[in-house]
Automatic annotation (TrEMBL):
Signal peptide interval: 1-27
Domain of life: Eukaryota
Pfam family, one: LRR_1
One GO CC annotation: extracellular region
Protein name: Uncharacterized protein
Main location: secreted
Keyword Transmembrane helix: no
Matching InterPro entries: Leu-rich_rpt (IPR001611), LRR_dom_sf (IPR032675), LRR_extensin-like_regulator (IPR051582)
Amino acid sequence: MSSIFAKLLFSTLCMLFLLKTHSLVFADQRLAIVYPVIQNFKSMITSDPLGVTKSWIGSDICNYKGFYCDNPPDNNSAIALASIDFNGFHLSASTLDGFIDKLPDIALFHANSNNFIGTITSQITKLPYLYELDLSNNRFSGPFPIAVLGMNTLTFLDIRFNFFSGGVPQQIFTQNLEILFINNNLLTQKLPENLASSSIFLLTLANNKFVGPIPRNLPKALSSLTEVVLLNNELTGCLPHEIGYFQEAVVFDVGNNQLTGPLPFSLSCLEKVEVVNLAGNMFYGIVPEIVCAGC
């Protein structure tokens, strides 16, 4: 009897929810589609210390805290949920599955500094407009989120300060990414060979477990990088003379690795550099005066 009662109760609640949704008036049908998705996600949130979700009521989704609307690329007269900014909300939920992947018009999804866990659903590959994805400073785990591979619209990916482990698929460096932050995870492998063929101009790999030498072709291929951040890994070998090609670098940080050998004179060619960290390695020999004097 209890099982039958539970089924009847569930059916009743579903009917009430549908009736409530039907009675709401939305500015656009696209907003009506995502309304139940948002409400379902709201029911999954286990902690909301700032009371953010209190504003997630009614049909005016564009005024929900953290939600932003705009005209979708395929229809300039329509109104759609275009971006989400949960940065600093400290929300807790066991998964983002069934939420982010059910927002068909989403272009930006930022969720820095929350307590989301689990893995990243492969269904996000179906999102046609997503170009910025920030999941940093959460508690995601598992392998590198391969769901982002093949997303040609994605130009910004930030998964730093999580617990992703294993290797980084080489395909990620041949996509259209311009900014890639994967520092402070548990990633372990040699620096990918095709890293030099990417179009990335902001890249951080620090605080992982990358091993092996710095590829000699890397500096010239990524000469537009403004920050070269490789600290706190397990890199070995010498600093290649080619690091002089990092002529746009403002930060050059290879501290706390297992690098060795003399410092190359080409360090002085980093004319724009403001921060250089070489500490915590096994370099030997004198520091060339030209390093301080510049080219």
